[in-house]
UniProtKB/TrEMBL annotation, chain A:
Peptidase S26 domain boundaries: 37-117, 126-170
Keyword set, alphabetical order: Hydrolase, Membrane, Mitochondrion, Mitochondrion inner membrane
PANTHER family cross-referenced by the UniProt entry: MITOCHONDRIAL INNER MEMBRANE PROTEASE SUBUNIT 1, PROTEASE FAMILY S26 MITOCHONDRIAL INNER MEMBRANE PROTEASE-RELATED
Name of protein: Peptidase S26 domain-containing protein
Tagged with keyword Ligase: no
Gene3D superfamilies the UniProt entry points to: Umud Fragment, subunit A (2.10.109.10)
Family: Belongs to the peptidase S26 family. IMP1 subfamily.
Species this protein is from: Vitis vinifera (Grape)
Any single Pfam family the record assigns to this protein: Peptidase_S26
């Protein structure tokens, strides 16, 4: 398609101009796609913060509630932010020993509660009792024989709780909300 | 007559929906940048004198440094208090995991010092004003996961305004937010007009 508006200028200028307009169209399309992607990521972030987010958990410390090889769970953090987490809830907690790791455990006690636990269930029957300080919670895995939790690193500050688990999506035979 | 009314109403409703979507997108963007990039905080209290004011300082804290582990001794950080999870406090990092920290236990009464090794994954925080600060000397080393941001900028302009009445500051902040929202709406209108004109021009081109 030749454009007759620039009559008399020759074909070399037309080549350069059309290439420039091609680049401009490409740049505009790239900007539009990036804008759509940015909007999608923003909405995803807001959904994750205020509604729920999916996570994959694996490991032996929450058997038999969660599988060894992996479960996909839905986690919400409105309950955490309002402070309505109660003993018996399964929560995601940022590990106090390694800040890049997030673990899933069950809350056994809130601040002010007295918690009794077995120190080393594989070897002895000895129990110990602890009062949880203000602003902290006691977390423990369901599988006390293979769990690294508050029995090892003590009560964790409430601010480390990232979200409360309320629904299981995968595997399908366990699909549904989690009951104690 | 009825048809033109319905047309007018549908146009108004469409415009209202467009504005609502634009506002929602803007707020999403603000929320994302607040969570991942940079956040604003008002720090008040005597524990960081003379660095920060007693009556209040508006500070900017970036969240990327904490996420990538670039926090070190000497940085001022925002920390979620381990004693009250709803409170966020401003303190200075004195030692990271593995460091040995020496501090005076009760500087007002005695000169007794104690030395402690900070456990892995924790940080030792202390206020600049050791005589009036509840920090790691009271509640021990805090886990790194409680850090919310690293302070890098103090907005000095508001210092003059805060020394007046407190409500004036909030009214000014609301006014600035409203002005920003109105300005964005005007820019949105200009962009819309530009797009409509461009479409008109492109539609008229083949006739020439």
């Amino acid at each position: 398609m030749k454009c007759r508006r620039f009559g008399g200028k020759g074909e070399e200028d037309m080549g350069a101009l059309s290439k420039l307009s091609q680049w401009r169209t490409l740049a505009r399309e790239a900007a539009e796609r990036t804008a759509i992607l940015a909007k999608f990521l923003c909405i995803l972030h807001v959904t994750n913060t205020y509604i729920c987010t999916p996570t994959l958990v694996y490991g032996p410390s929450m058997l038999p509630t969660f599988n060894l090889t992996g479960d996909v769970l839905l986690v919400e953090n409105l309950t955490v932010r309002m402070g309505k987490v109660r003993p018996g809830d399964v929560v995601l907690v940022r590990s106090p020993e390694n800040p890049r790791k997030t673990v899933s455990k069950r809350i056994l006690g809130m601040e002010g509660d007295r918690v009794t636990f077995m120190i080393d269930p594989k070897n002895s029957n000895r129990c110990q009792s602890v009062v949880i300080p203000k602003g902290h919670v006691w977390i423990q895995g369901d599988n006390i024989y293979a769990s690294h939790d508050s029995r090892n690193f003590g009560p964790v500050p409430y601010g480390l709780i990232q979200g409360k688990v309320f629904f299981r999506v995968w595997p399908l035979n366990g699909f549904g909300s989690l009951r104690q | 007559m009825g048809v033109s009314n319905v047309k007018q109403w549908s146009r108004i409703v469409k415009e209202a929906l467009d504005r609502a979507f634009f506002t929602a997108k803007f707020l999403c963007l603000l929320h994302v940048s607040n969570t991942y990039l940079c956040t604003v905080a008002l720090a008040h209290g005597p524990s960081m004198l003379p660095t920060l004011n007693l009556s209040g300082d508006l500070i900017l804290a970036d969240r990327l440094s904490v996420r990538f582990g670039k926090v070190g001794p000497g940085d001022i950080v925002l920390v979620r208090s381990p004693q009250n999870p709803r409170k966020i406090i401003t303190k200075r990092v004195v030692g990271m995991g593995g460091d040995r920290v020496t501090f005076s236990v009760d500087p007002k009464d005695s000169r007794r010092c104690e030395t402690v090794v900070v456990p892995e994954g924790h940080v030792w925080i202390a206020g600049d004003n050791i005589y009036a600060s509840t920090d790691s000397r009271n509640f021990g080393a805090v886990p790194y996961g409680l850090l919310q941001g690293k302070v890098f900028w103090r907005v000095c302009l508001f210092h003059l305004l805060i020394s007046f009445h407190n409500t004036f500051f909030y009214r000014l902040l609301h006014f600035i937010l409203l002005w920003g929202y109105i300005k964005w709406n005007i820019i949105f209108d200009c962009l819309e007009n530009f797009r409509i004109e461009k479409d008109n021009i492109l539609n008229h081109m083949p006739r020439k």
